[in-house]
Amino acid sequence: MELNALMVRYIVHDVDAAIAFYTRHFGFRVAGQSGPYFAILEKENLQLVLSPPKGPGGGSQPMPDGSRPEPGGWNRLIVKTGKLDAEVAGLKQAGVKFRNEIVSGPGGRQILVEDPSGNLVELFEPAAPAA
After folding, report:
1. pLDDT (tens digit, 9 = 90+) per residue, 49-58?
2. In the chain, how many domains are there?
3. Among the four 6, 20, 112, 115, which has the fewest Cβ within 10 Å?
4. Residue 50 and residue 68: Cα distance in Å, rounded?
5. Per the domain annotation, does 131 fall within a domain?
6. What is the DSSP letter of 6?
7. DSSP per residue, 49-60
8. Domain span at residue 20?
9. Is residue 48 packed enough to be buried (19+ CB in 10 Å), middle (13-18) or exposed (0-12)?
10. 64: in domain
């Protein structure tokens, strides 16, 4: 497995549950896994590194002040789509949890999906180019 120069790490409660979520709903594939403590998923040129909050890996180690990595928050992956409404409907039918409803802004429309650990994926549909 070759590592990209840039990767995103998500801290997850359960690596296997996160693998199932990202492969089923967002088309990632498993590039490598080390039991319940580490996995790398790939989609196009993105590698998503998954680690639990406790374990032997470096991503699970406490900070000098004793605080520990934890899942959730507001940082997120952005997945571009041209069919936001259809994708949202399919994800809702599959029982996927959303943090909000579709919102619109000058750049397009988006919605926030939560993975099983509460990490976010933003589904983003760009606005049509100005005429």
Report:
1. 999 998 888 8
2. 1
3. 6
4. 15
5. no
6. S
7. EEE-SSSSSGGG
8. 8-54+71-126
9. buried
10. no
